[in-house]
Write a structure and sequence with these properties.
heterodimer, A: mainly alpha, ABC transporter involved in vitamin B12 uptake, BtuC, globular, B: mainly alpha, 13 helices, 69% helix
Amino acid sequence: MGLSIVLAVLAIAVIKATPLAYAALGGVVSENAGVVNIGLEGMMAAGAFTAVVASFYFHSVVLAVIAAALTGAMLGLLLAYLAVTQRADQIIVGMAINVLALGGAAFMLSVLFGQPGASPEVTSFSTLGGATATVMTYLQRYALVWLAIIVCIVVHVFLYRTPGGLHLRAVGESPHAALTAGINVAKYRYLATIVGGVLAALGGAYLSIGEVDLYSDGMVAGRGFIALAAVIFGRWTPLGAMGACLFFGFFSSLQIALQRANVPAQLLEMLPYVLTIVAIAGFIGRSRPPAADGVPFTP
Amino acid sequence: MRGRLIVRTFGPLLAIALGSLVILLARGSPIAAYGALLQGALGSVQGFSETLTQTTLFIFAGLSVALAFRAGLFNIGAEGQLVVGALCAAVVGTHVHVAKPLEVPICFAAGALGGAFWGFIAGFLRARFGASEVITTIMLNYIAYLSVNYLVAGPLRGSPLAPETATIDTAAMLNPIIPGTRLTAAFPFAIVVAVAAWWWLKRTVSGFELRTVGRSERVARYAGMSVQAIIVKTMMLSGALAGIGGACEVMGLLHRFNAQLSPGYGFTSIAVALLAQSNPLGVIASAFFFAVLANGALSMQALALVPKDLVSIIEGLIILFASANWMGSQFALHRSRGSEPANEGDEPVAAGST
């Protein structure tokens, strides 16, 4: 393999990892506060769809990203309300969000654009920065890729280097102890879950208007669950999750490169799922969630 | 008990009412839409028989999720178990050639074994290593999809036209019990299995053990039950039920295994089990309800011009209402872990028992 092919594989790996990274970081934030988010898949779909709708009407990628973020915040709020205030079963709420968001996007797709399956093409990141490629062009077209890297660093610094991050992790590890220390458990869980929803939706927006320029049914294609896998494989840390996403991205990139060689694509695609099972069963060092992850808090 | 009744009655009604709002927002007529849906699902012998056929699959998959719930296990993997079971039934149906009275049960057994094996993996990992079955079953769904896709595109491909196996033997096919429809004996079989599951849970020692583990693993262990073994057995039983559902699809409808066999039936089955509050008899009614939605959706789209995805929205709302105990019920939570915070992750079920 020539150097250029290696570089291309790596570049595609980063691009493939980006949507996963947003969702996985969202999962890391909410799970560290003790709220499991199985609804990442649905939140990504909702983000992808609203980004396209906003871009269709306003012809602005910035507004599209904001619209996606707001949708993610709403779904995060829904999850937080049911999980924190109503102490509902978080797995079931997450499942409901998946079904609702995927069904809702498909429904609205038909209603708004009068055609099932896929939306029309809209203004996307690939149109930014003019015809001749300069540094500025790359900065703009791949803005969401750079933003993902920044988000990862911010989440890492926040969780491990600030009092707020310490409080958030305390709420996820031992809410009773956190409460005794005067930390508002519900507030942190709400905020973390909403931020998680925003990030997952941004991952979706990247899929629809970052990588391509439309929304199509089934475009999220299980990435929300791969992101969930990355959270676990990355041991509930932002850097670990980011690493896992890059690793998974590398394999889906390799798969494109190996299409002509006789390697069954399905075997490479299976890798994230198999590795997650291996990780959670503790075959390669125990992957342990925050102690109160998924457990409703009753003061 | 009163709270349970409220959710069972009002959850679906509220979801349907909110669905009407969604229809109005889409500038449709709720009456026309639901009318067309009911017309399509129940209004003709053809439509009604298709609804019962769909009910059959939902009963098996719903029982799969419901029994796991009763043991405190969340089986999100019915989808994968169903697909693996269906493939096993199709492979046996194409390769084993015996008389019909033998071949039909053999194919069902193959489907059950395939599903049970897929369930076993999650059960074993939970019992032995404390790995959350929620996560492992989600991952196993994708591993199942990708594995069968690989197999029917390559080694097991039996058709030049599509990624699917060859047609199964006529001896392995289920015949329609009403001529001109696709309704087979699998439907009464599903009802019998549901009643048997109800009786088993309520009246047998092993059923009692399963429910005890669901209430509290600690109590079950204290009473001398082998929690590990019960978890593994439950996941196998759960997988077997989903696998039989997949086998019905192959033997009664498709007559081969196709990579697009399930458009997410295993996920709908979670809604089926939740609405039935994990009661096997309730699963029959709940499966019928979701079958009406699933089967009427296309005629609603064709006649009332309301996108068929409305039924997904209704399904999502029903799951959402089922998630909370806000309607005064300890709903669906035959799951023990919510009430035992220290149990999550840090203490593998394996530790110290037996």
